[in-house]
Amino acid sequence: MRILVIEDDPEMGLLLSNWLREQGFQPELFENGLDGLNAFAAGAFDVAAIDVMLPGMTGFEVCHRIRQSGSTIPIVMITARDAVEDRVRGLDFGADDYIIKPFDFSELGARLRALFRRDAVGQKTLLQVGRVSIDSMATEVRVDGRRVTMSLKEFALLRLLAQSLGMTVTREVILREIWGSSEFIHPNIVEQYVSFVRHKLDPAEAGVSIKTIRGSGYSLELAR
Q1: Largest Cα–Cα distance of the chain, in whole Å?
Q2: Burial class for 133, CB neighbours closer than 10 Å (0-12, 13-18, 19+)
Q3: Among candidates 2, 64, 8, 11, which has minimal Cα distance to 39?
Q4: Whole-Å CA distances, 30 to 63, 72, 102, 103, 205
Q5: Which residues of 80-89 are buried (b: 16+ CB within 10 A; e: fewer)?
Q6: Residue range 108-131, pLDDT digits in tens
Q7: pTM
Q8: Are 117 and 124 in contact (CB under 8 A)?
Q9: Cβ neighbours of 142 (radius 10 Å)
Q10: Helical axes 105-123 vs 171-179, angle rounded to 10°
Q11: How many Cβ atoms from other residues are within 10 Å of residue 72's Cβ?
Q12: Is the CB of residue 31 less than 8 Å from the CB of residue 37?
């Protein structure tokens, strides 16, 4: 997932970019709105994280210009200002979400993933990875046209991993997205459900495999 990051604080920008890269994202960092807009116009990004207080051109203006271009790219505004009118202004300019400084990087990562998935679902309900077809409308998985029976939790887990193909999805994110919380739920349940999905896909020669990223989470990879 390519992420447009516009943050004028060099230290903050570097820390955020490094963390996103470690999580499997592909961030591109810019320190002012004009450079960020030029990069946006020249490349294809999946989602954007834009600081509000930028030199020369505010994040609000950057967001507004992106929307004027006709783009529907998901945008998260980052700000140290928590006044209601500021949040309303950002949303009115076309932002999809707001996060207030200081924030935990994992929260921003989760929001970026959620917006990316929401955007992907809005564009298509059928996801194809390898020989696996994942139909969100029918809640159905097929391999080369043959239906693979899965529980709702197994289906949701496979879809979550498929939507972040090749990237690490942490156990915390899986617990929050599939079970609604990472609290009061034993993290081993993720390993159990990953095992369930593996056993259902492998016999079907699905062309994909779930890779365990030690100490972090899981990644759906195309079989080689």
Answers
A1: 57
A2: middle
A3: 2
A4: 14, 20, 20, 20, 43
A5: eeeeeebbeb
A6: 888 888 787 766 555 556 888 989
A7: 0.55
A8: no
A9: 18
A10: 50
A11: 12
A12: no
Locate tokens 């309900």: which residue? 125
Segment 85-91 mean pLDDT = 73
- Both tokens of residue 112? 């970026």
Q: At 49, which helix (H) or strand (E)? A: strand 47-51
Three-state secondary structure readout of 134-184: EECCCCEEEECCEEECCCHHHHHHHHHHHHCCCCCEEHHHHHHHHHCCCCC
- Return the C-alpha torsion angle 186, 188, 192, 197, nearest 10: 100
Residues in the chain, overall count: 224
Do the beta carbons of residue 105 and residue 16 sit within 8 Å? yes
| Residue 142 tokens, joined | 């097929």
